[in-house]
Amino acid sequence: MSSEQHAAYTERMNIADLRKSYEKAELSESASDPDPLRQFDRWLQEAISSEVPEPNAMTVATVGSDLRPSTRVVLIKGFDAQGIVWYTNYGSRKGRELAGNPFAALQFHWVELERVVRIEGVVEKVSDEESDAYFKSRPLDSRIGAWASPQSEVIDSRAVLVANAAKYGAQFLLQPPRPPHWGGYRLKPERWEFWQGRKSRLHDRLRYTEQAEGGWLRERLAP
Question: What is the pTM assigned to this prediction?
Answer without folding.
Answer: 0.90
